[in-house]
Amino acid sequence: MSCLGCDLANAKFTVHTIYEDELVHCFLDINPFNEGHTLILPKRHVKELTELTYEETLAVMDAAKMISKKLNTLFEPDGITINQNGGKFSDLTHLHMHVIPRYENDGFTWSESTIQDGAHKRLAETANKLLRV
Fold first, then answer.
1. pLDDT tens series, the chain, 133 aa
2. Eight-class DSSP state of 10
3. Do the beta carbons of residue 86 and residue 48 sit within 8 Å?
4. How many CA atoms lie within 13 Å of 37's alpha carbon, on the beta-carbon side?
């Protein structure tokens, strides 16, 4: 089965590379939210964050840190958003992390949940459940 993410991460397509090492490939998003929007993909095929090895996890986060520094230096944004969507919310079926320079009023939103399940009233209970897993 062919994987677009694997092909991108392993340079089977032309991309605008920002950084690359033996574990990750970082390149500009073809449809950037703001100039400098970068994707970080592991070269090994993984779908979910939980599948990364310890070394790959470090490589992804080190790349995110390095790219953030570059974006801050070059574009002087108001902030940086780092985002990774998993499960059915991943549009690539290959783990990828977004590093996006952000500006006040750029239209990027983080919305409140539309599910009104009272989760805010169960924080201690939820924390205890997570501690036992």
1. 689 999 999 989 999 999 999 999 999 999 999 999 999 999 999 999 999 999 999 999 999 999 999 999 999 999 999 999 998 998 888 999 999 999 999 999 888 788 888 888 898 999 999 999 9
2. T
3. yes
4. 13
4-132 belongs to CATH 3.40.50.1820? no
Query: Which two three-digit tokens encode residue 33?
Result: 């939210």
Q: For residue 77, which of 61, 100, 108 has the smallest C-alpha distance?
A: 100
Helices (H) and strands (E) in the chain, counts: 3, 5
Instruction: Parse the chain into domains and list their residue ranges.
Output: 4-132
Q: What are the structure tokens assigned to 60, written together?
A: 């992804």
Shortest CA distance to 17 belongs to which of 1, 30, 33?
30
Query: In this structure, are residues 95 and 47 in contact, taking their beta carbons and an 8 Å threshold?
Result: yes
The C-alpha angle 16, 21, 27, rounded to 5 degrees, equals 20
